[in-house]
Design a protein that fits this description.
Blueprint: H1 4-16, E1 20-28, H2 38-53, H3 56-67, E2 71-78, H4 81-84, H5 90-107, E3 111-118, H6 125-140, E4 144-152, E5 156-158, H7 159-175, E6 187-191, E7 212-219, H8 221-230, H9 239-268, E8 271-277, H10 289-295, H11 306-324, H12 342-349, H13 355-361, E9 369-375, H14 380-397, E10 401-408, E11 416-418, E12 425-427, E13 446-447
Helix pairs in contact: 2-5, 3-9, 5-6, 6-7, 7-14, 8-9, 8-10, 9-11
Length: about 450
């Protein structure tokens, strides 16, 4: 039950503080669509997805209008294509990507995720075909998103896959050079990827999940910032009290997300999955993770104290969400994407946030090196080294980490890139020693799992 002041404060969040449901994502299991005939397979997945998704957009709009809360993005996630399409070669994988793109257009969603592979312990035939297909698939489609999981705490890091992904990223960037390497903005490399995440580009429907499920992503950086600012005049305010404010705010936001998600699921006759309470920013002023740091008294995100502030923020968000719902999942925490957050982009441009500090902060946040534009002449070895470092953080700490790095062809550190929409804009970050061709990443094999993974 809500008390009157809670209802009033939630209305204020929606009205003036940029609270919205950032994404409603319909997950569709495609394992019953498997066929060795490409034509039959494409026909099967079209029928299956359209059968569940034909009313998705209209239903989200109706539920959002009913409660006065915008559902900003409507999306679909599917079973990993490297698994359900394991019998197909790279060219056929590209054809599948085109089919998925056309399906997304048909149901009027912005992205479909699940052009994915899980290769933390080895690369199978279908995985190799999908990885080979990635540059073309992401270049030739607009709405298909891809993810590849190369590490877990239980399996270690597949360094062969890390190096292959660095080559795929470089090639995808080169193929979309006229758009500043835009294809790479639709590709995530993961450690410990969640199976139920509604946020792109990493969303896919995991094995062991229901035949169809609705997952919801709620974002509220503007809400958190305003909640902190309202209490700054309190002479008794301490960081412990700030954490409590963030926790209570996250609780209210989670309740809003679950309300919308369950009603959409019930209307579609589909199982409700999870609320992913990730503070995912937009390039809009007032809807920024970076501005939360300034509300906490830091001049810019990236200055000393930023990692501690992010740790407090992330933990409080998770505690509040877990209290509000028994079905919190996905990532649930704070994103720190460079181009998608105007404040973070500015801090990076002014030198307050370096790529090394960004990596340090990913030790305590939900994602990793997200939407980071880097010089186009970065070597495959250096890129693979950056990915491997981020995967190691996830593996050792038993948490999800990811990289969405964009080598921008023909541009150098300090040059401006513009991706458009929620993907935002930024200056290319400086990468020290970007031209190195060290042999470490080329040894291949698998970095073994840490000792604390032995919990059976």
């Amino acid at each position: 039950m809500f008390e009157d002041h809670e209802i009033i404060s939630t209305i204020e969040m929606v009205k003036n503080e940029n609270l919205d449901v950032r994404a409603v994502t319909l997950g569709v299991n495609l394992f019953d669509c498997i066929s060795h005939d490409l034509g039959v397979f494409k026909k099967n997945i079209r029928k299956k997805i359209l059968g569940h998704a034909s009313r998705l957009v209209d239903t989200c709009d109706q539920v959002g209008e009913k409660y006065g809360i915008d559902v900003v993005n409507k999306r679909i996630s599917i079973s990993p294509i490297a698994l359900v399409g394991a019998s197909f070669n790279a060219d056929q994988m590209v054809e599948i990507a085109h089919e998925l793109n056309d399906i997304a257009k048909t149901v009027n969603i912005d992205f479909i995720g699940g052009f994915s592979a899980l290769v933390e312990k080895g690369i199978a035939k279908g995985d190799a075909a999908l990885i080979e297909a990635l540059p073309r698939a992401l270049t030739e489609t607009q709405r298909v998103c891809a993810s590849v999981n190369v590490a877990t705490t239980k399996a270690g890091i597949n360094m062969d896959a890390v190096y292959e992904m660095s080559k795929a990223i470089k090639k995808a960037a080169e193929m979309t050079a006229d758009d500043d390497g835009l294809a790479c903005a639709k590709l995530c490399v993961f450690s410990n990827i969640p199976q139920d995440m509604p946020f792109m580009a990493g969303a896919y429907l995991g094995v062991g999940v229901a035949d169809a499920v609705i997952n919801v992503g709620v974002s509220g950086p503007g809400v958190v910032k305003r909640a902190i600012e309202r209490n700054l005049a309190d002479q008794q305010l301490t960081l412990g009290r700030v954490a409590e404010i963030i926790k209570r705010t996250a609780c209210k936001v989670t309740r809003v997300g679950e309300l919308i998600g369950r009603e959409v699921a019930d209307s579609l006759g589909i199982q409700f999955g999870v609320v992913d309470l990730s503070l995912a920013p937009t390039p809009t002023v007032g809807d920024s993770i970076g501005e939360i740091f300034q509300a906490l008294g830091l001049s810019h995100i990236g200055v000393p104290g930023s990692t501690a502030a992010l740790a407090m923020l992330n933990d409080a968000v998770k505690k509040g969400g877990a209290f509000a719902s028994s079905h919190v999942g996905g990532l649930s925490g704070a994103f720190i994407p460079v181009s998608e957050d105007l404040n973070i982009a500015n801090a990076a441009h002014k030198g307050y946030l370096s790529i090394e500090k960004l990596e340090a902060m990913t030790c305590v946040c939900s994602v990793g090196l997200d939407m980071v534009p880097v010089p186009g002449d970065i070597t495959e070895q250096t890129l693979a080294g950056i990915i491997a470092d981020e995967m190691a953080i996830g593996m050792i700490n038993a948490k999800t980490t990811a990289t969405r790095i964009i080598p921008v062809p023909g541009k150098k550190a300090g040059d401006k890139v513009y991706f458009g929409g929620l993907l935002g804009e930024a200056r290319i970050m400086d990468v020290p020693h970007a031209g190195l061709t060290d042999d470490f990443v080329t040894f291949g094999g698998r970095i073994p799992a840490p000792i604390h993974s032995l919990k059976n």
